[in-house]
Amino acid sequence: MALPLRPLGNTGLLVSPIGFGGGPFGGFYGSFDESEGIRAVHHAIDQGINLIDTSPYYGGGKSEEILGKALVGGWREKVVLATKAGRIAKDVFDFTFEGMVRSCETSLKLLQTDHVDILQAHDIEFEPNLDWVFDETWRALDHLRQQGKCRFIGMTGYPLGALEKAINNCKLDVVISYCHASLNDTTMITKLLPVAEARGTGIINASSLSMGLLTQAAPPAWHPAPQEVKTAVLKAAAHCARKGADLATLAQQFTAHLPGVTTTLVGMSNIREVDTNIAAVSTKPDPEMLQSVLEILKPISGMGWPSGAWPA
Known about the structure:
The protein is an alpha/beta fold. The protein has ten helices and twelve strands.
């Protein structure tokens, strides 16, 4: 299946509308078969997915290690490969110059490559002093770019305010924003996109399902969304079930066709998931179903949650 390629900011990179998210390879969503995961990577590339994203945080380097195995033998040259640095574990961060450089060197070894296409500081909102990040951490990213260890640099996070400050305070090629271009929250489009476009910064979107919120199943117990949001989503899921529709599919379709979204990262670990995700983003949502679900979610539209040092 030929997926369209879209320009990512001013980088000159052309990326597929969905990217292969490496979170599942870190064990974030339970056990999986490594060999099947590697086959899924190859299948995704054959089907036109050319953006692959991972992080040392995903399984303490396990995700990078598996992707490194998957991309040998000529596969590396077919993709835009992105990883991150700065977040080591759930509550462990190191955004220092030395820490970022050390992390990148380890990532390159695990990924079995001499450079990544995109390197980003991971979840910057967990550092209370963002001005320090925009100096110390950015200098490390820029140094690694000058060394040829990465081609483009960026920062990631949940709070749009943090990403807006990052774009305005230091020259970034890309940022990753997640959970803000979905059925229940499109503030990435209204708040962050104008800032990014003015600076020529590309936005990689992630989590069209809002971290598992937008599915037919009940939201995960750990999900940080307010109960009001979870209750509204349960109503939307019940409505979809009555109409013979699937909330997760509708959510993916919605995000994929949302004007201003270049690409969306989706976690995948097997061929079935690859095919399901490609099918979802290759078709448009049913207009009546979409409108009825948006109406149910309207009271909680744009309602977020705290992350790191940032309030909701």
